[in-house]
Amino acid sequence: MNPPESSPASQQRQQRQQHQYPSGIPDPPIFAHLGPKDRAHLRRNIEAHAAHEHQFTMSSSEQTFIAIKPDGVQRGLIGPIISRFESRGFKLVAIKLTVPTKEHLEKHYEDLSSKPFFPGLIAYMGSGPVCAMVWEGRDAVKTGRVLLGATNPAASAPGTIRGDYAIDVGRNVCHGSDAVESAKKEIALWFKPEEVQSWKAAQFDWIYEKP
């Protein structure tokens, strides 16, 4: 162990180097008695532990909105796509087959309204049934996006839904929420509160070590 830095100057330097961890707590008091190498080693251990704990504090009830677009429905991909999410361990809490109106789609894609492809997107999404779903599980939004793959199927890895089932970006099979807040907004747009079910899957304790 390195000798402690006990001079007033070193103590001031240590105070300036106070570090904030993911949990929000500062360096522990023992840091005042440790040398730079020992502080760095202990800091890495604390951050690794905090990251591990954070994995288990994320809610297992996070929800994401996933929609199988008209091309995916027409190609008979509803079953395979549902299977991908169920096999991963996510829980289906809402589902409907619907042909959305132009007004509904303009609301859903309002952030893209200034794009030149917007009219074509609205026409395409309203050309047939859409399978709208809400999936629930830990880190559902982020992991859902990973399962779908990149927006452009050409950039999607094999094994992802778009990587396996799509070629053209204009026929990329599915939509997935890109953030927790947008998921809440999209779920509220597509489903009434009573249409989203609350239930515990029998395999819950075999999927999650901690709730």
From TrEMBL:
CDD domains: NDPk_I. The keyword ATP-binding applies. GO terms for molecular function: ATP binding; nucleoside diphosphate kinase activity. ATP binds at K69, F117, R145, T151, R162, N172. Belongs to the NDK family. It holds the Pfam family NDK. It catalyses: a 2'-deoxyribonucleoside 5'-diphosphate + ATP = a 2'-deoxyribonucleoside 5'-triphosphate + ADP. Residues 61-198 form the Nucleoside diphosphate kinase-like domain. It is an enzyme of class 2 (transferase). Residues 1-31 are annotated as: Disordered. The keyword Nucleotide-binding applies. Keywords: ATP-binding, Kinase, Nucleotide-binding, Transferase. This is Nucleoside diphosphate kinase. Residues 11-20 have a biased composition (Low complexity). The active site is at H175 (pros-phosphohistidine intermediate). Signal peptide: none annotated. It comes from the Eukaryota. GO terms for biological process: CTP biosynthetic process; GTP biosynthetic process; UTP biosynthetic process. Its EC number is 2.7.4.6. Its cofactor is Mg(2+).
